[in-house]
Amino acid sequence: MVSIILPTYNEALNMRLIIPSLSKVLDDAGIPGEILVVDDSSPDGTAGIAEGLGKAYPVRVHVRKEDRGLSKAVIEGFRLAKGDICVVMDADLSHPVESIPHMLQPILDGRCDVTVGSRYVEGGGSENWSWKRKAISRGAGLLAKGVTSLSDPTSGFMALRKSVLDGVKLDPLGWKIVLEVVAKANPRVMEIPILFSDRKEGKSKLGLLVQWDYLRHLWHLYVHTFPTLEQFIRFCLVGLTGLLVDTAVLVFLVGWVFMDPRAAAVFAFSAAVTWNYFLNRIWSFRAAASTGLLSRYVSFIFVCVAGLGIRISVMHMLIEYAGMAKAPWYVLASFAGIAVATLFNFLGSKYVVFSSRR
């Protein structure tokens, strides 16, 4: 059995169009199925119209009153679906209903676990799109290349064997449930060409907030796929605050205490290292920093001193052997040294100082 999940909000005008079309496609293909409308309490009466159509078509309606949102509605649909295979699509007829049998066949044949409708494989496309909308769509796909190889991860049209979600925690932001499923479940995926068209009735919900949610969602997926990435970014941000501490202490000791700048630099370095240690312990590596305060602190100092030596060594090699002694090249040599030293410091902090094995 197949469950077609339609997440809806203010799609009353489209219910009388899409539900009969879906029912006809299932009947013509000889596919037993249901149409599951998951509505987010639409004020335009979407749920009531869908329920009325249930007298003539295989429709079930579930109305959600809390924690609303398209992706959350789809997840609720997965839970309520009676079918072993689920199809997720928009209710505005932008996804071609006639493509559903093509989306289902590879799964029924056992060739894959998930199919995704794509506008960007051979045979696919979109109708009457402006260059701006095409650019946004393409750009969104490129941003997701680190977590999926899909050509069209934002299409929103998907069929899947429900069992691939067993044990998978789905927690998407915004609308891109397809990307969430593919990135976290890691199923066998096949892309099916579709011709995407603009909605028939109603108002598009694509806006700046949706695009912002997509970027936030991508960040979560990148962190899920590359868990060390978040730690590294936090580590770098801590390093930037440490630079401010170093500078502030240096200026204070030289300008107010009248200390020799070279001696003041030692105290400034010590203050920055101490600041970085405690902030990294609490924030960057909090899961692995519950014990060994003093021993970890000493280890952190050794790592930072070694990192300083690496920075100077990289600068020396670039200046001596790459001809980067003159401006502005020595600045680039310094940046290169900082980059290598930062990577060394991070790895040393993660796997030595704050290692859970200690």
**Which second-level CATH architecture of the largest domain applies?**
Alpha-Beta Complex
Low-confidence sequence ranges: none
CA gyration radius, whole angstroms: 28 Å
Quickly count the domains: 2
Overall geometric form: elongated
Secondary-structure-based class equals alpha/beta
State the CATH superfamily name of the largest domain.
Spore Coat Polysaccharide Biosynthesis Protein SpsA, Chain A
CATH topology group of the largest domain? Spore Coat Polysaccharide Biosynthesis Protein SpsA, Chain A
For the record, what CATH class of the largest domain applies? Alpha Beta
Strand tally: 9
Describe this structure in words.
The protein has 358 residues and is α/β, with parallel strands linked by helices. It contains eleven helices and nine strands. The strands form two sheets. A seven-stranded mixed β-sheet has the order 3-2-1-4-7-5-8, sandwiched between helices. α7 packs across α8, α9 (261-284) crosses α10 (293-321) and α10 runs antiparallel to α11 (329-353). The protein is elongated, with a radius of gyration of 28 Å.
